[in-house]
Amino acid sequence: MNYTKNEVLIDVKEVNLTYDKVILRDINFRIQNIVRPGMNQGQVVSLIGRSGIGKTQLFKILAGLVKPNSGTVMVGVDQHPVEAGEVGIVSQNYILFNHRSVHDNLRLAMKHDSLALNDKDKDALIADYAQRFALEEHLKKYPLQLSGGQRQRVSIIQQVLTGNRFILLDEPFSGLDALMIDRVMELLTQVATLHELNTLVIVSHDVENSLAISDTAYILAKEKEKEGATITETLDLIEMGLAWNAGIREDSRFQQLVSQMKHKI
Ligand SMILES: Nc1ncnc2c1ncn2[C@@H]1O[C@H](COP(=O)(O)OP(=O)(O)OP(=O)(O)O)[C@@H](O)[C@H]1O
Ligand SMILES: [Mg+2]
């Protein structure tokens, strides 16, 4: 596979979080811009760990919503400290305005759009996304009139429309049936390849789906006789020949890796 890893886009250094007990201990990882000749290749990274391990807390730290007790999160090509609001978040419970239609929620997301599109072009873009993600019949509905899967797709598109290069997703596969998981995978892959610098960070307990879509995965777990969760394993799925392949689930090496990792979280 022909690719290079260039500039650092997200750099997490020595992050610690303690409430009444240690939740996260010495979290370190970085995400580099992956470049593949002749294509827009974004980055898809997952942080995988069992329920209660601290994934949502780490998600909030990466989003700038929770300050760690120590350590830093730097983002962007210029590597500045992350600020709340600058990364897109698709949280465990999707944030949509319930008193506005799907269309208006999406229009609102484009308020600060850097392309300076006029109203007609904005509507055309929304219609285009809606069509691609099977939402065209639902644009006039309100969020509470949608199914969970539809709401999730609106929420992901909303983050794409804000123009955020970084999008964090907390448990994007939970509560979806197999067909819908495939759609979300497709949508995320499309988002990742829309722009070279687009970077998706997924936190999830779902080993199989997370590994299937990622180029890099980090296992978040406890180490023996130590408090708090830390990264216990780094999987470079590109080097393993298991990335960028929609049919990867059928691969026996992939299946082996999934069952191995299930024992490690
Ligand atoms: N504000 C808080 N004060 C004290 N403890 C907290 C606070 N918020 C979260 N915790 C604790 O932090 C730990 C990690 O919680 P977190 O929500 O990050 O888990 P998670 O890995 O996302 O779990 P799940 O997979 O169930 O979503 C839990 O033990 C939780 O009780
Ligand atoms: Mg969580």
Overview of the structural elements:
With 265 residues, the chain is α/β, with parallel strands linked by helices. It folds into two domains: 4-87 and 165-262, Rossmann fold; 101-163, no CATH class. Helices cover 30% and strands 27% of the residues. The strands form two sheets. A six-stranded mixed beta sheet has the order 6-7-8-3-9-10, with helices on both faces. The protein is globular. The relative contact order is 0.19.
Key phrases:
ATP-binding; globular; 10 strands; 2 domains; six-stranded mixed beta sheet; four-stranded antiparallel beta sheet; binds adenosine-5'-triphosphate; binds magnesium ion; nucleotide-binding; 7 helices; about 30% helix; ATP binding; ABC transporter ATP-binding protein; P-loop_NTPase; about 25% strand; about 260 residues
Distance from N terminus to C terminus (CA atoms, Å) equals 29 Å
Return the structural class.
alpha/beta
Largest sheet: 6 strands, mixed
Number of strands: 10
Strand percent estimate: 25-35%
Please tell me the overall pLDDT: 92
| Count of individual helical segments | 7
- Round the Cα radius of gyration to an integer and report it: 18 Å
Q: Class of the largest domain in CATH?
A: Alpha Beta
Strand order across the largest sheet: 6-7-8-3-9-10
Order of helices and strands: EEEHEEEHHHEHEHEEH
Question: What is the molecular shape?
Answer: globular
Q: Please estimate the helix content.
A: 25-40%
CATH second-level architecture of the largest domain: 3-Layer(aba) Sandwich
CATH T-level topology of the largest domain: Rossmann fold
CATH homologous superfamily caption of the largest domain: P-loop containing nucleotide triphosphate hydrolases
Low-confidence stretches: none
Structurally, how many domains make up the residues? 2
Distinct small molecules bound, one entry per kind: adenosine-5'-triphosphate, magnesium ion
Organism: Chryseolinea lacunae
Protein name: ABC transporter ATP-binding protein
Keywords: ATP-binding, Nucleotide-binding, Transport
GO molecular function: ATP binding
